[in-house]
From TrEMBL:
Residue stretches spanning the membrane: 72-93, 105-124, 171-189
Coiled coil location: none
Compartments (UniProt record): Cytoplasm
Domain CSD: 2-74
Main location: cytoplasm
InterPro entries listed in its UniProt record: Ca-reg_mRNA-binding_domain, CSD, CSD_CS, CSP_DNA-bd, DUF1294, NA-bd_OB-fold
UniProtKB keywords: Membrane, Phosphoprotein, Transmembrane, Transmembrane helix
Keyword Kinase: no
The protein's name in its UniProt record: Cold shock and DUF1294 domain-containing protein
Pfam families according to UniProt: CSD, DUF1294
Keyword Kinase belongs to the record: no
Amino acid sequence: MNHKGTLTNWNDAKGFGFITPEGGGERVFAHISSYAGRGRPIGNRKVAYSLVKDEKGRPRVGRFQYLGTARVGASIAPGFWLAAALVLAFFAVLCGLCDEDYLPVTFVGAYSAVSLVAFVMYWIDKRAATRGAQRTPETTLHLFELCCGWPGALLAQQIFRHKTRKVSYQVVFWLAVIVNVGALGWLLIAPETMSLRAQLGFDLTRSLQPLISR
């Protein structure tokens, strides 16, 4: 990567843009598959790049990545720390409930295992999107999010910068989070779930319902 320039006119939806050479000259086509950094490229950042020629002999970018501080910042999505804090807080609450015997420890295991599966599914779908391969259906991703995998999905969205800009997807994602957390709260508190709690291994002598009723 012996050339320097600025990534301009980046179209993230289509996965391509152009690099304007540092010393001036004709801009060069750059595709997402040529990006050597983490996450997704962002326009108007300084980059280092190499040049190759396409099948018609025209110059195009072979590989490119950000320069200096932009390279460091590009590896972490803006919402990553907020997502990480939310996931840590959620698991801290789960562990606290388990420690006080309000919740079986198997629930922590279930959330962890399904979150790991969801995280891997996002990684696979991200690679497929980059390579133009067959994608994972959004309904499948949402199903795993709903079934306790949303913490892993939330982290994957930020780490891979995947599905974060599609408003319709984010609406369904957060609805899945609300339904999942709401169902867990209902299971912990509602008197009518007593028999279900017994089947799931809850300690029936420990209930949050009296505490909530105070």
